[in-house]
């Protein structure tokens, strides 16, 4: 018998020993902090379903980014709430758009942050879907040119990475082609490669004012029951020119993160989404769990599953705790 020769508890006895042999080392260096940009100046409005998360004008976004930089978090991702919406999301293409202005403001502030921009139409369309509507359906191919132009406008504003989240087939290829044609061949694409049609997006849709006005997104976002399909989606996006890929949400899809990690040797992100964040916040406010302990456990689990990069609304709190 192995006992008492082998006693795994020997290496758990003290924090020094536990830290010495720890397999997964969580660090703010792997975090991306999501931010919601709205029109105006000096605007900072808390999202009711996401305590501690705000809709902010570009000037306040810069202030938030200074704090993010100071905490050792290397990157932010920007989502836009435009002044106007229309059926095709045309406001997302404007050089004076909310995301474009925020990127430029961060650049003027000379912050040492990688700025990622979300490329999608749901925040910009009056119907709330991620693509153009034709005959009552989300039209895949008619959407691609708009997404490519949106990505180009973000590149021109100074984005470091563009991140298409719409789940239209072929959008990575369309964006890569548009960027390359306009001398942005070195700009990376982070593809939301395996984005599931999830019930965990509810608070985000309040934060981004992006709830669909009819139907749902099952015809383009992935079926939660499918894992093998995620590998196909990742392979297609990489073939089309993606440099990084993402699985979203993270917690219900840790198995997918693991399978993607084993199959592909590219930078992999996991999105710890709004619903996951809000559940923890609500439970902590009710005294049902210890927020710090649970958040760090969740983020460690996402990294342990295989994510190199974690997009999370907990990023600032977690960075403080990890210090």
List the main descriptive attributes of the protein structure presented here.
single chain; 323 residues; alpha/beta; TIM Barrel; 11 helices; 38% helix
Structure report:
With 323 residues, this protein is α/β, with parallel strands linked by helices. The protein has one domain (28-322): Aldolase class I (TIM Barrel). The chain has helices at 15-20, 58-70, 98-108, 140-157, 171-181, 202-207, 228-240, 254-263, 274-285, 291-305, 315-322; strands spanning 31-37, 44-46, 54-56, 75-80, 114-119, 132-134, 137-139, 161-164, 190-195, 244-248, 268-272, 309-312. The strands form two sheets. Strands 1, 2, 3, 4, 5, 8, 9, 10, 11 and 12 form a ten-stranded mixed beta sheet that branches. Helix 2 packs across helix 3, helix 3 runs parallel beside helix 4 (140-157) and helix 4 (140-157) packs across helix 5 (171-181). The longest helix has 18 residues, at 140-157.
Low-confidence stretches: none
Compute the average pLDDT: 97
Radius of gyration: 20 Å
Order of helices and strands: HEEEHEHEEEHEHEHHEHEHHEH
How many beta-strand segments?
12
Helix content: 25-40%
Proportion of strand residues: 15-25%
Assign the structural class, choosing from mainly alpha, mainly beta, alpha/beta, alpha+beta, or little secondary structure: alpha/beta
Number of domains: 1
Span of the ends, CA to CA: 42 Å
Describe the largest sheet: 10 strands, mixed
Task: Specify the CATH class.
Answer: Alpha Beta
Relevant CATH superfamily: Aldolase class I
CATH architecture: Alpha-Beta Barrel
**3D shape:** globular
Number of helices: 11
Determine the CATH topology.
TIM Barrel
């Amino acid at each position: 018998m192995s006992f008492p020769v082998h006693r795994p508890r020997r290496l758990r006895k003290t924090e020094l020993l536990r830290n010495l042999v720890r397999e997964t080392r969580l660090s703010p260096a792997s975090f991306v902090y999501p931010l919601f940009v709205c029109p105006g100046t000096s605007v900072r409005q808390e999202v009711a379903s996401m305590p501690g998360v705000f809709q902010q004008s570009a000037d306040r976004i810069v202030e938030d980014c200074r704090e993010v930089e100071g905490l050792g978090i290397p990157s932010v991702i920007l989502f836009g709430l435009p002044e106007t919406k229309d059926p095709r999301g045309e406001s997302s293409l404007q050089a004076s758009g909310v995301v474009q202005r925020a990127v430029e403001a961060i650049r003027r502030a000379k912050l040492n942050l990688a700025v990622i921009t979300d490329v999608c139409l749901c925040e910009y369309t009056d119907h709330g879907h991620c693509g153009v509507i034709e005959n009552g359906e989300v039209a895949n191919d008619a959407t691609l040119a708009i997404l490519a132009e949106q990505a180009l406008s973000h590149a021109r504003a100074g984005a470091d990475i563009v991140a298409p989240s719409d789940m239209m087939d072929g959008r990575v290829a369309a964006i890569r082609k548009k960027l390359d044609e306009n001398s942005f061949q070195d700009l990376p694409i982070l593809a939301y490669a395996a984005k599931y049609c999830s019930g965990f997006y509810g608070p985000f849709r309040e934060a981004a004012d992006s709830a669909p006005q009819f139907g749902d997104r099952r015809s383009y976002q992935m079926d939660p029951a499918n894992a093998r399909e995620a590998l196909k989606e990742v392979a297609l996006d990489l073939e089309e020119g993606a440099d990084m890929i993402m699985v979203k949400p993270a917690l219900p899809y840790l198995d997918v993160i693991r399978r993607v990690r084993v199959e592909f040797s590219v930078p992999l992100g996991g999105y710890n989404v709004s619903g996951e964040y809000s559940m923890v916040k609500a439970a902590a406010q009710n005294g049902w769990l210890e927020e710090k302990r649970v958040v760090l456990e969740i983020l460690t689990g996402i990294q342990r599953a295989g994510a190199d990069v974690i997009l999370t609304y907990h990023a600032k709190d977690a960075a403080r705790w990890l210090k």
